[in-house]
Amino acid sequence: MEKGKLIVFEGLDGSGKGTQTALLLQYVQKLGRRVCLTAEPTASSTGGIIRDALGGFTKRDAYELSALFMADRVFHNVNPKNGIKQYLEKGIDVICDRYYYSSFAYQGIDADLDWVMQINLGCKEITKPDLCIFLDVDIESCDERIDSSRLDREIYENKETQKRIRERFFEVFKRLSGSENIKIVNAVRSIEEVSEDVIRIYDSLRQDKN
Ligand code: TYD
Q: Is the pTM for the entire model greater than 0.70?
C-alpha cells in the first residue's frame, strides 16, 4: 500500500497556520483521501510541561526546552494510539501544525543550532516530512494578528524575538534546501489566495510520487 504523506506547516505566531491547515484538510478529504490533522506541541504530558514554559509560568533553559520538544516529537511519531507513523503506514496523510523546523528557528536562537538540528534530524524515530509549507508573513502583520486574537502573549511572542526567529527560519531553510522539500508561501494575502497556492503545492506533491 502507498504510504501517507507527512505535510508540515510552519510560520511565525499569527501567520495563519490554523486557518490554512483546516482548509487543506477539507480539500484532501474532498478528494476522498484519508487524512488527519495534528499539531506540536502535542497534548501529551510533555506537551503540558512545554506549554507551561511557553506561557512563562516555569522558566526553562533553551537546551532543556529543545530536549522537551524533541521528546514530545518522538512521542508524536511513535505513540501507539495516534502516532504519526502508524497513520502514514496505513496510507493516511498527516497534516501537522509545526514540527522540527520550529525547534530550529525558536530554540535555535538561544541554544546551539547545530545541536538542535542534530538531535532531531539524527533521530530515526522522527519521520522526515514529505513537504514543509512555510507561511511567510512580515513581523508587523503577525504582531497585529496576535494582538487581535489573544489576551496573553507567550515567551516568544514579541516583535524583537519574532524578527530573530524569522531570520533563523530562512537560515535553516537555506541549510536544508538540498535535503528537504520546503516551500515558502507569501501569506500576506487573502485566505483564498494563500489556500490556492497551498493546494497547488499539495497537488504537485501527489503527482510527483504517483
Ligand atoms: P502555536 O502554533 O502558536 O500553538 P498555539 O496556537 O496553540 O499557541 O505553537 C506554540 C508555540 O510553540 C509557538 O510559539 C512556537 C513554539 N514552538 C517551539 O518553540 N519549538 C517547537 O519545536 C515547536 C513545535 C513549537
A: yes
